[in-house]
Amino acid sequence: MFSNQAITICASKYFDHHQIQELHRKGVVHFGENRAQDLLKKQEMLKNLPIIWHFIGHLQTNKVKDIINQIEYLHTLDRISLADNIQKYRFTPLKCFIQVNLTGESQKSGINPENLAQFLIEMKKYDKIEIIGLMTIGQENQLEITEKAFIKLSQLATLHGLKEKSMGMSDDYELALQHGATYLRIGRKFKELLE
Q1: Selection from 76, 70, 115, 111 nearest residue 96 by Cα
Q2: pLDDT tens, N- to C-terminus, the chain (195 residues)
Q3: Domain map of the chain by residue range?
Q4: Are 130 and 120 in contact (CB under 8 A)?
Q5: What are phi and psi for residue 88, nearest 5 degrees?
Q6: Distance from CA of residue 190 to its chain's centroid?
Q7: Which end of the chain is more exposed for a tag (fewer CB within 10 A), N or C?
Q8: What's the N-to-C CA distance of the chain in angstroms?
């Protein structure tokens, strides 16, 4: 939708189920939710549509049981306790991105890049988790810092032999594409398709 080299996920927290239906009619099939309760509510209303659901927000450990078998991708794996709960409740292997905090912002989730190699080793023991790539979030209104984060994510993905890179949102997706993004998480920009 926004690129022919990356899968574009509509960050559907911005849209109600009627708008999601309209976007789906226009060809959008990947939708990503940030909150467990919103995901479940919208899924129930849209259960007849062939939607590929991603979870793109911080997933609280106590919500894993509710949603983990309702999604096809998780973009925010960032701690062992979350992996333990996925392993406990997931029925089949789940495609996961490891979230890496590359802007150094304390309010952001994500593992420290220095801990990534060890985290990847630890993930090998979970047969319900399939690590397909890395994810990061840029710093709002700081394109220079964001670009450095995207470059670093690309380097880390290459270093660890991971093909997929989930990076880039409405304000910085073009920058993300320049640095090899394979999944974009776009919210507000999709509103233009509904106008």
Answers
A1: 76
A2: 678 889 999 999 989 999 999 999 999 999 999 999 999 999 999 999 999 999 999 999 999 999 999 999 999 999 999 999 999 999 999 999 999 999 988 888 999 999 999 999 999 999 999 999 999 999 998 999 999 999 999 999 999 999 999 999 999 999 999 999 999 999 999 988 888
A3: 7-194
A4: no
A5: -70, -40
A6: 17
A7: C
A8: 16
Q: For every residue of the chain, which 3-state class applies, written as one string?
A: CCCCCCEEEEEHHHCCHHHHHHHHHCCCCEEEECCHHHHHHHHHHCCCCCCEEEECCCCCHHHHHHHCCCCCEEEEECCHHHHHHHHHHCCCCEEEEEEECCCCCCCCCCECHHHHHHHHHHHCCCCCEEEEEEECCCCCCCHHHHHHHHHHHHHHHHHCCCCEEECCCCCCHHHHHHCCCCEEEECHHHHHHHC
Q: How many CA atoms lie within 13 A of 100 on its CB side?
A: 26
**Count of CB atoms within 10 A of residue 88's CB?**
11
The CATH architecture of the domain made up of 7-194 is Alpha-Beta Barrel (3.20)
